[in-house]
């Protein structure tokens, strides 16, 4: 991803992340997986604009939050939201002590990192024994398209790859499932159609189908409600496939 494209994406995210149906669903997913446990310190690897930390602070007001990102612009956005413990660092070389955090979240970051195994190992290193490492990433390798390339993705994930990464990092898989299942058929069709030369515009990460839909209240609300129904159901079922995949690992 070019610098200008990266900056443009961050600007768009800062604008719509708090209301967009997909981000709202992912926030609810993380909340559900973290549960009512007390956390003294929580780290967000690849914290971006800081919107997730803003949300989690309301849920866990007594927790101390930390964030890190490789983008200076992302860190600026996060600090404008009032987050102080945000540092510039690599996800494969964290600037924290061993066994320091009760929870670490890596949300749609792993797919951007060439050495994803090193990122998981580092996250495990700074995680306390019994702590939670929550990861979300794009799923379904067969829908790889220019959408992924434009987003700066290195790969899409499968359950098998997540399980392999956990094993290599000496972490235990507590939970794993695909999600964004109910809305996956139209998304899969759009991604596959975007492989046709004349329809490549469908793969643009900032087209009206993707991000700007947050500005269309009725449609955004409908999609959000469908997505939230699906997220709540993850307490009882696991989906066989989906546009995204989530895992909870522990030390």
Salient structural properties:
single chain, 251 residues, alpha/beta, Rossmann fold, 7-stranded mixed β-sheet, 9 helices, globular, disordered N terminus
Tell me what you see in this structure:
- The chain is of the alpha/beta class.
- It contains 9 helices and 7 strands.
- The chain has helices at 3-16, 21-34, 51-59, 72-80, 116-126, 146-151, 159-168, 184-193, 217-233, and strands spanning 41-45, 64-69, 86-88, 101-107, 127-138, 172-179, 244-250.
- The protein has a 7-stranded mixed β-sheet with strand order 3-2-1-4-5-7-6, sandwiched between helices.
- Helix 5 (116-126) links the parallel strand 4 (101-107) and strand 5.
- Helix 2 runs parallel beside helix 9.
- Residues 1-5 have low confidence and may be disordered.
Q: What is the secondary structure topology, with strand pairs?
A:
Blueprint: H1 3-16, H2 21-34, E1 41-45, H3 51-59, E2 64-69, H4 72-80, E3 86-88, E4 101-107, H5 116-126, E5 127-138, H6 146-151, H7 159-168, E6 172-179, H8 184-193, H9 217-233, E7 244-250
Parallel strand pairs: 1-2, 1-4, 2-3, 4-5
Antiparallel strand pairs: 5-7, 6-7
Brief summary of the model shown:
This protein is α/β, with parallel strands linked by helices.
> What is the H/E order?
HHEHEHEEHEHHEHHE
Strand content: 15-25%
Query: Could you name the CATH homologous superfamily of the domain at 3-18 and 37-184 and 240-250?
Result: Vaccinia Virus protein VP39
CATH architecture annotation name of the domain at 3-18 and 37-184 and 240-250:
3-Layer(aba) Sandwich
* Dominant shape: globular
């Amino acid at each position: 991803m070019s610098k200008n494209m990266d900056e443009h994406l961050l600007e768009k995210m800062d604008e719509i992340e708090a209301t967009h149906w997909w981000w709202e669903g992912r926030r609810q997913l993380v909340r559900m997986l973290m549960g009512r446990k007390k956390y003294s310190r929580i780290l967000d690897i690849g914290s971006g604009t800081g919107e997730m930390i803003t949300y989690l602070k309301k849920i866990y007001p007594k927790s101390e939050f930390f964030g890190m990102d490789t983008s200076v612009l992302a860190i600026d956005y996060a600090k404008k939201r009032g987050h102080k413990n945000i540092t510039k660092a690599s996800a494969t070389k964290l600037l924290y002590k061993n066994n320091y955090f009760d929870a670490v979240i890596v949300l749609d970051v792993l797919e951007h990192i060439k050495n994803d195994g090193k990122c998981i190992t580092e996250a495990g290193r700074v995680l306390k024994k019994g702590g939670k490492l929550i990861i979300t990433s794009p799923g379904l390798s067969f829908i790889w398209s220019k959408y992924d390339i434009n987003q700066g993705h290195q790969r899409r994930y499968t359950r098998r790859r997540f399980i392999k990464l956990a094993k290599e990092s000496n972490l235990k898989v507590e939970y794993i499932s695909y999600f964004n299942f109910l809305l996956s058929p139209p998304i899969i069709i759009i991604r596959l159609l975007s492989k046709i030369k004349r329809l490549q515009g469908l793969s643009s990460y900032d087209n009206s189908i993707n991000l700007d839909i947050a500005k269309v209240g009725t449609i955004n609300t409908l999609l959000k409600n469908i997505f939230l129904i699906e997220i709540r159901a993850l307490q009882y079922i696991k989906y066989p496939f989906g546009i995204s995949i989530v895992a909870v690992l522990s030390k």
